[in-house]
Design a protein that fits this description.
Elements: E1 4-8, H1 13-24, E2 28-33, H2 39-51, E3 58-62, H3 72-75, E4 80-83, H4 96-117, E5 123-127, H5 159-176, E6 182-188, E7 190-192, H6 203-213, E8 221-226, H7 227-239, E9 245-249, E10 252-255, H8 256-264, H9 279-285, H10 293-299, H11 309-314, H12 322-335
Parallel strand pairs: 1-2, 1-4, 2-3, 4-5, 5-6, 6-9, 7-8
Antiparallel strand pairs: 8-10
Length: 343
């Protein structure tokens, strides 16, 4: 029988690609969603399974990050658990602690408590983030590595990043207190690439929409990675005997103008950024983009680099070309009607 894998938050941007690759590889996938009867969220998963001729190997079950015990049945009988569920928005809709930190930390604790009760689980792969590695670009003057932890983000300045650090720290603390399963974390940079869901409420989609419509950017440099690479990294970390600890998953660093040039090659009629915004102007309108003065001070004009040598070495990993990823993301956003077609 096919090995069973639990994927939490299965209808998310990264998770749908994980589900797709798992089904195509022959696994049985049990995906958790908050409401299995919500066809708007589940239809993409059913379509993925149908295309992979794997409708009999996809199971969707109800679970909620804040409901203690709701993951118990979801992980039972699974050999692997890939925990991807966590809010990903750059700005909180309400209290930063209630919107970001509590769901991220409590959700991780609830999933790992469920895993501890299940004798079947051998490995957990947690979707963390490079935001758990660095808070400000100038936290150090050399590339960030897996040994680094974000110690500068706060609830008032970088609540999302803080939530990722606290959730990952909670996961490692729980993992160290048991010997039933091994834990591996994937720490992606900013994720780009085609969306399978067609949802317009993710930070990755919103990022490109703003750049294509408004034509400005408040940050000089972004470290990017293709969503399909992030999904593959989870699966390689799930099965590889060499996998251990944290893995930075970042393809390369790109300037705002390099990102614009990659998109303009196919879509020249979008209002992509054509020049850098002077730093002093960012102090005026940056807060309207969710950029605090502190963030601007420590990030704008500061190179940002992540060392991806560990994932390349341990997991024999090769990254896709991110220039192509950006174009394919715009393609998918046009296809789903998220932005107008301006080729």
């Amino acid at each position: 029988m096919a090995e069973r894998v639990c994927v939490t938050g299965a209808s998310g941007y990264i998770a749908t690609h994980i589900v797709q690759q798992l089904l195509e590889a022959g696994y049985h996938v049990r995906g958790t969603v908050r409401d299995p009867s919500n066809e708007a969220k589940t239809k993409v998963l059913m379509a993925i399974a149908e295309k992979a001729q794997a409708a009999d190997r996809l199971e969707l079950v109800k679970a909620d990050l804040l409901d203690e015990g709701s993951f118990d049945e979801a992980v039972k009988g699974c050999k692997y658990v890939l925990h991807t569920a966590s809010p990903f928005q750059l700005q909180a809709r309400g209290s930063p602690e209630e919107y970001f930190v509590i769901p991220a930390v409590k959700g991780t604790e609830n999933v790992l408590n469920a895993v501890a009760k299940a004798d079947s689980v051998e490995r957990v792969v947690l979707t963390s983030s490079c935001a758990a590695v660095e808070g400000y670009a100038d936290d150090k003057d050399t590339p960030f590595t897996e040994d680094d932890w974000n110690r500068t983000s706060t609830l008032s300045d970088g609540a999302y990043s803080l939530s990722k650090r606290r959730a990952e720290e909670a996961a490692w603390k729980m993992a160290e207190q048991q010997d039933k399963y091994t834990l591996v974390t994937i720490n992606p940079a900013f994720v780009m690439g085609p969306t399978l869901t067609g949802r317009n409420d993710t930070a990755s989609v919103e990022f490109l929409k703003v750049r294509l419509v408004v034509g400005v950017d408040g940050v000089d440099t972004h470290c990017l990675v293709d969503v399909r690479d992030v999904a593959l990294a989870h699966i390689k970390a799930m099965t590889s005997p060499k996998a251990q600890g944290r893995y930075i998953c970042s393809a390369k660093s790109m300037s705002v103008l390099e990102i614009a040039a990659a998109i303009s090659a196919k879509y020249p009629n979008y209002r992509v950024p054509t020049r850098k915004v002077p730093k002093f102007l960012l102090y005026l309108f940056g807060p309207f983009q969710g950029l605090s003065w502190s963030f601007i001070s420590h990030n704008v004009g500061v190179p940002l680099e992540f060392d991806n040598s560990k994932i390349k070495r341990d997991l024999d990993f090769e990254f896709r070309d991110v220039d192509t990823s950006l174009v394919e993301m715009v393609d998918s956003m046009v296809q789903h009607g998220l932005i107008p077609d301006r080729r």
